[in-house]
Amino acid sequence: MLGPEDLQAPKMKDDSSRQKDKERKSRLSLFLTKSGSHENVSPHKKTNTASSNISPEAALQWSDSFEELLKHSDGVETFSQFLRTEFSEENIEFWLACEEYKTIDSETKLLSKAKYIYTVFIESEAPKEVNIDYNTKMAIQKNIAQHTKSCFEAAQMKVYSLMKKDSYPRFLHSDIYLRVTRRKGPGATMFRRRSRSCVFNERGEATTEPSAW
């Protein structure tokens, strides 16, 4: 007869597996709750952000690499806010949707998610159509019926490369990122090299004094 310990062992294993899935999906929840639309966002409109809760030290780590940025949910959200100001938030939303798609085990849910991604991001005139080439789009259209976990992989890599090479460098110089790292705006910390300035004494002779900086 099975004791309480025997019944708990499989449950603990399932809990461990579920915890790993939760950790991987933590940043994906942002896509489900905070994605916006082109019509409702102005590039000059201030975006709502919880940047005050993000430490400058943590935000500075995002500049190490694009991969490092995507590891942090706060980094993904801040980057998404920047993309909204450029009317290109569909790129990060598509990438996140593909990441979530690859975690689905149910065949029924996999097919449903595949159709959703295709309808929202891939087909012509889709509400958040991503910029991919014709051949990649046709390959997805052909493979979506099989709904394998790799059917969006080529498109995801193209969008990832576009964000990494094009959007990410601009993000690092954007007002949104500079405010989070406290390098712009009230309370900004500036780093300047100490210099010496030239002044003239009462006799008209030039002398040098260390400046306040």
3D structure, described in words:
- It comes from Lates japonicus (Japanese lates).
- Keywords: Signal transduction inhibitor.
- Residues 1-54 are annotated as: Disordered.
- The protein has 213 residues and is mainly alpha-helical.
- It has helices at 4-25, 29-34, 56-61, 66-70, 73-85, 90-101, 107-122, 134-143, 153-172, 175-180; strands spanning 196-200, 206-210.
- Helix 5 packs antiparallel against helix 6 and helix 6 (90-101) runs antiparallel to helix 7 (107-122).
- It is elongated and about 50 Å long.
Features:
213 residues; mainly alpha; RGS_sf; Regulator of G-protein signaling 21-like protein; RGS; signal transduction inhibitor
- The end-to-end span amounts to 79 Å
Spatial strand order of the main sheet: 1-2
Radius of gyration: 25 Å
Number of strands: 2
Q: What portion of residues is helical?
A: 40-55%
The secondary-structure class comes to mainly alpha
Task: Count the DSSP helices.
Answer: 10
Relative strand content: under 5%
Tell me, what's the shape? elongated
Give the biggest sheet: 2 strands, antiparallel
Domain RGS: 65-181
Region (Disordered): 1-54
Biased composition (Basic and acidic residues): 11-26
Keywords: Signal transduction inhibitor
Brief rundown of the structure:
Residues 1-54 are annotated as: Disordered. With 213 residues, the chain is mainly alpha-helical.
What's the arrangement of secondary structure elements?
Layout: H1 4-25, H2 29-34, H3 56-61, H4 66-70, H5 73-85, H6 90-101, H7 107-122, H8 134-143, H9 153-172, H10 175-180, E1 196-200, E2 206-210
